[in-house]
User: Fold these one by one.
Assistant:
Number 1:
Amino acid sequence: QQQEQEQEPPKPKQRNLLDNASNLLTNFLSGGSLGAMPVAEGAVTDLFGKPLFFSLYDWFIEHGSVYKLAFGPKSFVVVSDPIVARHILRENAFCYDKGVLAEILKPIMGKGLIPADLDTWKQRRKVITPGFHALFIEAMVRIFTKCSERTISKLEELTESEGQVIVDLEAEFSNLALDIIGLGVFNFDFDSVTKESPVIKAVYGTLFEAEHRSTFYIPYWNLPFTKWIVPRQRKFHSDLKVINDCLDNLIKNAKETRQEDDVEKLQQRDYSSLKDVSLLRFLVDMRGADVDDRQLRDDLMTMLIAGHETTAAVLTWSVFLLAQSPTKMRKAQAEVDSVLSNGAITVDTLKKLEYIKLIILEALRLYPQPPLLIRRSLRPDKLPGGYNGAKEGYEIPVGTDIFVSIYNLHRSPYFWDRPNEFEPERFSVPKKDESIKGWSGFDPNRSPGAMYPNEIIADFAFLPFGGGPRKCVGDQFALLESTVALAMLLRKFDVELRGSPDEVEMVTGATIHTKNGLWCRLRKRRT
Ligand code: HEM
C-alpha cells in the first residue's frame, strides 16, 4: 500500500510542434477559436459500448486537464482542473448557462431551477433555498426514517423463511428515494416500496425518457409531429400528463389551505405538530412568493427528478463498494450498532454516524452523480491557467459547450492518493502539506462547521454537489437521507454481492447506474 501511495501519477503526454500544429488546424476546421487547446479526436464509436466519461478520463490523462473533444462538426471543451472548474462554476458562473442540458430538460422541467433562464433562476433560487431550513431538515429525518423502515420491513419479510434473500438493491433504493422525495417535496406518498401505481409508472417512464434524451445525440423529439407519431414520444407525453395532473392537484390543494406568513415565521413553525411538512407547503405559504401554478409545478418536477435518481445512485454505489470490503462493512456496522442502540434517529444521532457519512462521500467521489456538469458560454471568456497540461489560460468564444468532468476531478491522480481505491478514511486524515493543492487530507481549520468535506475545503478538487451559485440546493437533505437509509440497512443485514463486481457494469445517463441491477444476498444479522 505504501508503495502504491508513493507511485508517481501519470504525466500528461508532452506535445510536440507537430501535435500543436495539427490541433490548430483541427480547431480551425471545426470552426472554433480555442487557440492551442489540445484536441482529442473522438470517433463516434467511442460513444457506444462504454460510458462516455471513461473515454473522457483516458483523454484527460493523454491530453491534459483542459482539452477540446471534437466529434466531426460538434465539439466540447472538457475540463478536469480544479482552478478552471472553480472559475466556470463560481467565479464567472453567470457567464455560462446549462446549454445542451437545458435543451434536453426543458420539455420536462420547464422553468425549474436546472434548465431555467438566468432571470427566472435568480428569482426562484431565492425563494426555494430558505425552504431547506433547519426545522424542515429535522422534519425530513422523520420521513427518511419512516420510509426506510418500510423498505427494511419488506426486506425482513423476504428473508423470513430462509434467513437470507437475493434482491436487486438498486431497485429497492430507487423506490425508497422516490417515496422520500414525494413526501418531502410535495407531501405525496407514492408508497412505491409496496405497490405499483400509474403515477409511479409515469415517473419512471419520464426518467427513462430524460435519460434517453441525454444520451441520444440527435434531438429528433423537437421535430414537428413526433409527439404524435413516434410511440416512445407519445408515451412520454402521456406519462408527463399523468405526473403534471398529479402535481397540479397537489398544488391546488395546498393553495386552498394556504396560510400566508413571513419566511422567518415559517422557519420557526412547530414542525412536530404539522401534518404537511413538505417544501410545497412552505413555498405556497410564503408571503410575497406569489407564483403561478405552472412555475410551482416546474419547481416540483425539477426536484422530483434531481433528488430521486441521484440519491438512489449514491446508495447503490455505497453498498457496491462496502460489499467488496468486509472490514469496512464491519466497521460501519459497529458504528451503527453503537450510535443507534437506543432508539430514535434524530439530526443529533446522525451527526455521530461519522463513518457512514464518509462512506457516502467516498461513494460520491468514485461515482459522482452526475459525472459531468454541462455548461455553455453566454459571452466570450478567458479561462485561468490551471495545473497539468492547462497552464495557459484559453480563450473561450461565445457558445462554447463545456463538460466539467467531476469524474476526472474526483479520480485525478494529480490530486488524490490512490484515486481509484475506496477509502472513506481519507477524509479524516489530517492534511499533510498546506502547499499541496486539491485534496491531500482533511484540514479542520478550513471552513470550520462545514457539515461535510466539500468543494471549498477541497479547492474544487472534490465537488460532490457541484459548486458556486448553481450548487445543489438539496445537499443536506440528500446526505442525511442517504445516511439514514444506509445505517438502517446495515443495522439489520449483512450484504454480499451475488456475483463478481465486474458483472456490475456501469451505464450512464444523467447519473451512473448499473446495467442490470445491484443483485445482493442479504442475510439477517444476529444482533
Ligand atoms: C443541482 C448533485 C440530491 C435538487 C445539483 C448539482 C449537483 C447535484 C452536482 C449541480 C448541477 C450543476 O451545477 O449543473 C446531487 C447529488 C444528490 C442530490 C449527488 C444526492 C446524493 C438532490 C436533492 C434535491 C436536489 C435531494 C432536492 C430535494 C437540486 C436542484 C439543483 C441541483 C434543484 C439545481 C440547483 C440550481 O441550479 O440552482 N445537484 N443532488 N438535489 N440539485 Fe442536487
Note: Confidence is low (pLDDT under 50) at residues 1-33.
Number 2:
Amino acid sequence: PGSLVIAVDGTSGSGKSSTSRGVAARLGLRYLDTGAMFRAITWWLLREGVDVHDAAAVAAVADRPRIASGTDPLAPTITVDGTDVSVEVRSDEVNAAVSPVSAVPAVRSRLLELQREVIGAGGIVVEGRDIGSVVWPQAEVKVYLSADPDARAARRAAEEGGADVAATQQSLLERDRIDSGRATAPLTMADGAVHVDSTHLTLDEVIDRIVGLASQAA
Ligand code: C5P
C-alpha cells in the first residue's frame, strides 16, 4: 500500500531499529531512522567543539549541517555534508550527548521539517520517540515498543560485541530519563498506539505482530 505510514516509537534499545527494518523489508516499504538524524547533528556538534549542554549555543548552529537519510531498510545510511557517518554516530560520545541535544527545540524543529519531507507521500516505516505523537500523528499504524531494561541492555551489549551490560543499561536508562522528561516532544505512548512488549518475543514475532497490524490498517 503506497501511502501507508507505520510509526514505531519506544525506549532506547527496545529493538526499534531491527524491528522497523524487518517490517519495511517484508512489506516493501522505505525506512527512516529519525534517531540517526539526531545522532548526526550531535556528531557534528561534538566535532565542531560546541558545548552540547549549552542549549543556546546548540540552537544557534542547529541549521548548519546538511543531514540526509538513505531510506533502504536493507542498507540505511546517514550523511552529514555528504559524508557517511553511519558508524561514527554509534559511538559512546554520541550516546552520551544525543539526549541533551535532542531536547533543544531548535534541533527538533529543524529535523521535524526534514522528517516530514522524507515521509512525504508515505510507504514508509519511521522509528523514533515522537513519530506517532508529533511528527506524523495521522500514521495508519502506531506502535509503542518496549522491553525490560535487563533484556534491552543484554541485547544491545551483545550487538556491540560484548560491551559491559551494566554500563550499557545505565546509558540506555539515562537516555530514557532525559527523553521522557523533556518539555518538547517527550517520549510517550501516542494516542492510538498499540503497545508491544518485546521482552519475551523474538524479533520475528515482533515483526509478525506489526505486519499483522499493517494488514488490518490497509
Ligand atoms: O533511536 P536512537 O536510540 O538512535 O535515538 C538516539 C536519541 O535521539 C534518543 O535517545 C533521543 O534523544 C533522540 N531522538 C529523539 N526523537 C526521535 C528519535 C530520537 O529525540 N524521534
Note: The radius of gyration is 16 Å.
